[in-house]
Amino acid sequence: MAISITGKIITTFLLFLTTSIPASAQKSKDAEELGKALEYFTSAKYHEALLIFQRLDKEYKLNERFKAYIGLCYYHDWDYEAAAKYLESVMPKIEVFAPHERSIYYYTTAESKFNLKRYKEAIPYYEKTLTVCYEREKGDVYYRLGLCNMFLQSWKPAYDQYMNAEKIYNQYKQDEDVQGRLAQIKRMAAACWANYEATLPKDSLLKTSDKTTNKDNETTQLKNISTIINSLISTMLLTTTTLDSVKDIIKKEEKIKLEK
Fold first, then answer.
1. CA gyration radius for the chain?
2. 165-197 in b/e burial notation, b at 16+ Cβ within 10 A?
3. Which of 8, 19, 86, 143 lies 20 to 30 Å from 246 when distance is taken between CA atoms?
């Protein structure tokens, strides 16, 4: 009997050695892999980071922040459909995150929708971004809202958003890239105002000259949507200022955090 009990104890111990220890070692290795993924992420090697995140997400239930990182990786990998899907899946859970961190996720979701030409779906996320992003970043967000409304042929809202963008950009007009953007905004706003005026009754008192153009009434040259789009393409969109990178938000202790 004693031998039998001892045998069972030894057998149980051996089973522990062959199952628990390797599993623990594997989890430790995966924690290192997660750290490596974050290093790739903060080094802007998003595709490499994505490959590791994807594997770990299948093996473990990664928390909402890591899932948001996966969405950002998809965005930088130009897979806007997957980016929007991942980011929208965690939206209800990110309200507890710091304001500016949330702004990055909102903005990236909006940009994904924008690149998919889903302008109406992009607008609410740009609007959310405005509530939590830094003041300097608002110019780019208003500018995008102007574009969304313009592509939707909502001329007055587009004009208003361009004017909001102009106010922000004017605070930083000494920057060369901002000067180019301001010139672009004036043309786009003029086009939108002209189209808005065209929808008003001829005797409407609201029919006023465009505030962003010279007195020689240059807006008459931009009275249809094709002219507006051609104007946009010919001037080329300047590179949008990216919101401060999420890499600055990642905490060191997160590099070893896996949730089973």
1. 26
2. bbebbeeeeeeeebeebbebbbbbbbbbbbbbb
3. 143
> Rounded distance, CA 90 to CA 232, Å?
34
* Interior angle at CA 120, CA 189 and CA 192, nearest 5: 15
Q: Which residues contact 214 (CB under 8 A, 6 or more apart)?
A: none
154/146 Cα distance (integer angstroms): 9
Give per-residue pLDDT as tens, 65-124.
899 999 999 999 999 999 999 999 999 898 889 999 999 999 999 999 999 999 999 999
Residue indicated by tokens 């509530």 = 131
Q: Where are the domains of the chain?
A: 136-239
Instruction: Look up residue 44 and give its two tokens.
Output: 């802007």
**Tokens standing for residue 191:** 């086009």
Model confidence, pTM? 0.73
In the three-class reduction of DSSP (H, G, I as helix; E, B as strand; rest coil), residue 100 is classed as helix
At 113, list the tokens: 């929708």
